[in-house]
Amino acid sequence: MKYKHLFGPVTSRRLGVSLGVDLVPYKYCPLNCVYCEIQNTTHLETERRAFFPVAEILEELDAFLQKAPHLDYITFSGAGEPTLNSSINTIICHIKEKYPSYKLALLTNGTLLDNDDVLQDILLCDLILPSLDAASEEVFKIVNRPHPSLTAKNLIEGLVKLRKAYQGQIWLEVFIIQGITDTPEEMALLRQAIARISPDLVQLNSLDRPGAEEWVEAAEPERLKEIREYMRSGLAMPVEIIAKIKYQTGMSVLDDELVELIKGTITRRPSTAEDLAAGLDIHINEISKVLRELNIQGKLHTERRARGVFYTWIA
């Protein structure tokens, strides 16, 4: 069966063996983050809708899960914001009822969590991984380029509401852009906000491969360590680095066949991640994870052109 809404399983640094469930069309998102590895948002949206017939998604899940594969998580993620799908609760309940042994994770930018309906929809997930990159309105607009209806204040309040309503684990990701999100003023505001949110874990991240905007660069390893220590000094929960500094030895598993397909394609002609996904008929998230790792290993040359970031294999 060819899957339209499932991808993987992929080996995730944070989630182990993870089956991805993509609930929204490509690049439908309330944010247009400058660091997004899947490039610019094409549909800046906050309106929830079903997008796809829910039976179509459930049929794919049943076809895959009836084989009882080994999975650490079934993860709602993809190339957009999963909580935009108004049928997410139906899908969560279906998995919990028919396949209770599987744990569910949700990757979300958190922008819709101040909506009580969204909050109630996701409470059965075992792990929620939201993001908070900025606590001031100025930096939020620079880094996350939100839908006009969104504010940093509402994002933070939504995350506070999540903590009060949700009994599972919350791992909060903070993306660091040196000189913008790591100023003393912004760091102080972020730490205050994180203390209010009270996640179970804070994870600092930085750029692994070219983002949506050329000026975004990876934070220096020493700077990430400094930020980690600053956050630890004022927070009760653990703070760790998930950026390149921590996993420079690479993922535990890379799909050799997919690596060879990518290598063969970009050796012949430079390609974007989107080109590779379309040409190889593989989900953009699977392509992105492999490109991220190959870039860390120094096997790729990147060049930004009008149509996006093009990858070439370094012989």
Describe the structure.
The protein is α/β, with parallel strands linked by helices. The protein folds into two domains: 6-246, Alpha-Beta Barrel (TIM Barrel); 254-315, Arc Repressor Mutant, subunit A. The protein is built from eleven helices and twelve strands. It has helices spanning 54-65, 88-98, 116-121, 137-144, 152-165, 184-197, 221-234, 244-247, 256-268, 273-280, 284-296; strands spanning 6-12, 16-22, 28-29, 43-44, 73-77, 104-107, 127-129, 169-175, 201-205, 239-241, 300-305, 308-313. The protein has an eight-stranded mixed beta sheet with strand order 1-2-5-6-7-8-9-10, with helices on both faces. Strands 3-4 form a two-stranded parallel sheet. A two-stranded antiparallel sheet has the order 11-12. Helix 1 (54-65) packs parallel to helix 2 (88-98) and helix 10 packs across helix 11. Residues 245-252 have low confidence and may be disordered.
Can I get a quick summary?
This protein has 315 residues and is an alpha/beta fold. Helix content is 37%, strand content 18%. The chain has helices at residues 54-65, 88-98, 116-121, 137-144, 152-165, 184-197, 221-234, 244-247, 256-268, 273-280, 284-296; strands spanning 6-12, 16-22, 28-29, 43-44, 73-77, 104-107, 127-129, 169-175, 201-205, 239-241, 300-305, 308-313.
Q: Could you name the CATH topology of the largest domain? A: TIM Barrel
Q: What structural class do helix, strand and pairing data support?
A: alpha/beta
Please write the string of helix (H) and strand (E) elements.
EEEEHEHEHEHHEHEHEHHHHEE
CATH class of the largest domain: Alpha Beta
